Amino acid sequence: MITTDILIIGAGPTGLFTVFEAGLLKLKCHLIDALPQPGGQCSEIYPKKPIYDIPAYPEILAGDLTEKLLEQCKQFEPGFTLGERAETIEKQEDGSFIVTTNKGTKHQAPVIAIAGGLGSFEPRKPLIHNITDFEDKGVEYIIKDPEIYRNKKVVIAGGGDSALDWSIFLSDVASEVTLIHRRNEFRGHLDSVEKVQELKNAGKINLVTPAEVVGILGDDKVSGVVVKQAEHIEKEFEIETDHFIPLFGLSPKLGPIANWGLEIEKNAIKVNNSLDYQTNIPGIYAIGDVNTYPGKLKLILCGFHEATLMCQSAYQIINPGKRYVMKYTTVAGVDGFDGTRKEAPKAVVKKIE
Amino acid sequence: MEQDINITITDREGAIHKIQAPTDMAMNLMEVVRSYELAPEGTIGVCGGMAMCASCQCYVLSKTELPEMQDDEEAMLSEAFYVKDNSRLGCQIQITPEMEGLEVELAPES
Q1: Where is the domain boundary, A222, A248, A274?
Q2: Total domain count for chain A?
């Protein structure tokens, strides 16, 4: 059981800044995120795109913003459960909550902060009529353990970076790699595109374009796919394979959080915005893009503000009746849980002769 | 102030909406749909308009002349589902006075 003061669901910008604000109040945080790395949309969807409305940054790349937020909160030693989705929540008799992930990891905290953005990222499944029959029987939307493809035949579909990168990687592992895409052009890093070209020329990747997989063959597991190719004349043929890996990106879904008994409106969680961004369940807050209230704007900078107010309210739940006034970091400095201290340099007092 | 233009949008349930869209606020078609709440929040414009999610895919029903498709829109559509010959991404269509009478249908959520 992982125990902490504030359990944050979602490691995007709002969740990461919560760690800093909580740390100033000597509250410890742990974050859960379905993605394998922190940063949320900023690192998953648009790491190389600029943002222009982060206060004091005329321009910052989304990936760099994530780096800066991690650096800013690192002395408060946040814990991370990454690559796991928060699945269930159970209220305990002492008022705390236990949140369990899809992989069974349990976390206990008196305060939950849902900073889940648009939800957890789920793979986009292609519209092939019998695809669900073969899930985990040769069809995988996410590659978790590349070793299962050793000396197997693999068909990958998709035209982005993950399709290219996994084709390259698996060309050394699998006995046969076929990459299928609807167009002849791929959108990915130039060196990935060039590497695939090289491997194709060397006969290590079979490239089938412009084409798409329209059916899956097999009895209790995948034995092949039906491919429709549309170059010059349209034709349909079969490719023998042990695995079919469609890589069409991820799309966010509110997911299990929708069943936690929280008030939901417009795919977002209703909160009390006149006070502390608490939901209809005391002790559970929702901050950042995942919440809604009159006048809500889904902006990173609004998430920062919401996180700050939320932490003050969480302090009262965790330390009932304990006195506290907000302190400026310039005055009080920042005392990390790792023993580090940041503080403003003392003024120099010296006589002028 | 420039004149609003008339656009007809068929939502995902098949309901037809005749709406007015401003041409002077640098709005794109996805944002117009959101401003009239013709699709639930969180199901359209997920990436914010970067041609990176295809949640604003629509089918262009009128013969209206539209801006030419750029590489990133074409690449995204090549990975999207329910794509037809008249598919476009709403976020890549800036509303201009020339688009008076535009008719589109929202593609299914995927």
Answers
A1: A248
A2: 2
Q: How far is B36 from chain A (nearest CA, A)?
A: 14
Which among A215, A216, A221, A160 is positioned nearest to A192, based on CA atoms? A160
Q: A82 and A255 in contact (C-beta within 8 Å)?
A: no
Q: Which helix (H) or strand (E) holds A206?
A: strand A206-208
ipTM of the complex: 0.80
In a domain, residue A306? The reply is yes
Specify which residues A155 forms β-bridges with: A178, A244
Q: How many CB atoms lie within 10 A of CB A58?
A: 8
- Are the beta carbons of B47 and A182 separated by less than 8 Å? no
Domain that holds residue A11: 2-121+251-342
The answer to whether A45 contacts B53, with C-beta atoms less than 8 Å apart, is yes
DSSP state letter for A320: T
Q: Which regions of chain A are under pLDDT 50?
A: none
| Encoded amino acid at A67, one letter | E
Name the closest residue on chain A to residue B71, using Cα atoms: A187
pTM reported for the whole predicted model: 0.85
Task: State residue B3's pLDDT score.
Answer: 80
Neighbours of A45 (CB within 10 A): 22
